[in-house]
Amino acid sequence: MSAAEGSAAPPVTKKFGKGERTLPAPGQRVSKYYPAEDVLEPKKLSTQVRKTQRPTKYRQSLQPGTIIILLAGRFRGKRVVLLKQLDQGVLLITGPFKANGVPLRRVNSRYVIATSKKVDLSGIDQKIVEKASQPDYFGEKTRRAEDKKSEEAFFKQGEKPEKKQVTSARAEDQKAVDKALLATIKKEQFLLSYLHTSFTLRNGDKPHEMVF
What we know:
- The structure is a single chain.
- By secondary structure, the protein is α+β, with helices and mostly antiparallel strands.
- It has helices spanning 3-6, 97-100, 126-132, 140-149, 151-155, 168-185, 191-196; strands at 12-16, 19-23, 66-70, 79-85, 90-94, 105-108, 112-118.
- It is elongated, with a radius of gyration of 33 Å.
- The relative contact order is 0.13.
């Protein structure tokens, strides 16, 4: 036993009326002061769980060439053609643009309905599909966010926003994809008009009984 432990005063028992109360020693009393900032305690190793990133498992109905219905976003209700499955549950789709105004874009696979109709994609240049599958292909939002942070964009907040300009490379890729898709779509009767019309629900419709 150390000298400090031996010199520690024992707790004192005092009587208050008919009862007794044990008071802690001065060294055992709770401090009246506390730190102004919270002190972060290191996490225990047992509580640290490392989550492994698993590959996304797509529905069997979401195969390239399938006509799908968009359920969310700017083009909700549109029937589009699925071109490729990307990482993290993202799909690469197109209208085609000349059929319903939907350009090459990426959508979340959770917010689509797959139909039983498929389109042959053999006529599309796969180099364009691979090019559009790259993460930096749709980099317009990143550039737009950087422009907003500049002083010039700060003073232009009250003005009418400029019209979004599509790069010439993306426009050429869209034309090439549309040309190949439309040549295949026009071979089948009513398929072009099917893509042109939007999916809607009316009173009395039962989506759970529909066959897409």
